[in-house]
Amino acid sequence: AEVAELQARLRAVRHTVLVLSGKGGVGKSTFSALLAHGLAADETKQVALLDIDICGPSIPKMMGLEGEQVHQSGSGWSPVYVEENLGVMSVGFLLSSPDDAVIWRGPKKNGLIKQFLRDVDWGEVDYLIVDTPPGTSDEHLSIVQYLSATHIDGAVIVTTPQEVSLQDVRKEINFCRKVKLPIIGVVENMSGFVCPKCKNESQIFPPTTGGAEKMCQNLNVSLLGKVPLDPQIGKSCDRGQSFLAEAPESPATLSYRNIIQRIQEYCEQHHLQEEKII
Q1: Which spans are transmembrane here (predicted)?
Q2: Which CATH architecture has domain 1-276?
C-alpha cells in the first residue's frame, strides 16, 4: 500500500536527481540550489527541490525562503515557491526558529522523508532535485528505498580537490554501486581560484593525489566539470539570490551551465532508455 501511495504521488515526476557527497562542507547544498535555479531558468520546465538534510537544513536560507511556513491543503503539503516553476520543501519550514536543533533518531528522520515524498503535492514536475546530508546512512538508504518504488535517474556526487574529501567520496561511489543507484557523475567544487584583479589562478585546495579527475579515471565515473571558487557564490547564497543570475559572466557560472547541460542530457538519455525497456 505504501509503495502504491508513493507511486501515485510521484507519477508526475519526470526526472529525479540526488545530490550526494561523503563529506560535509564541500558545497552540496550550494550545488543543489544552483542546479535548481539553473534548470528553472527554462520557464517551460517545472522544478522541485527537496531538502532531506534533516539536521542541517540550509536550503531555505539559500533560496531566500527563511521564515516561510508549509501550508496544508486537501491534496497534501504545498511546497514553498521561489518562482512559479520552482518549488522547495525542507524541514527548515517546520521549525519555529532557524536556530532550533533537530535531535531525532533514525526512524523519525525516515518517517519525515517518507512524508515529504508521499504527502507533498509537487504536481507535474520535470526535475526533482534531492539535497542529502553527508555520509551513507539512514537518510540515504531511506530516499533510495522509497524512490526505487518509482525511478531515480541517478546521483551527482560533489567533492573538493583535496584527498581528505576524495577519500569520503570514494565511499559514496561504493555506496551507490552497492544500492544500484546510477551515478550521473562527479563535480569538483572549489577547484582553483581566479583572482578578479590580476586574473591569475591559485590552487586554494591543492589536489595532492590528482583531484577528482584522477579519481574518476580510476573508478570509471564521469567527471561532469570543475567549479572554481568565487566569493560571490557565498554572498549570493547568504542573501538567498541565484548566483547564476547575479554573476552571469563569472567562470563559475559558465562551469555550472556546462554541468547542468550535461545532467539534462544524461536525464533525457536515461528516460529514452527506460521507455525502450518498457
Answers
A1: none
A2: 3-Layer(aba) Sandwich (3.40)
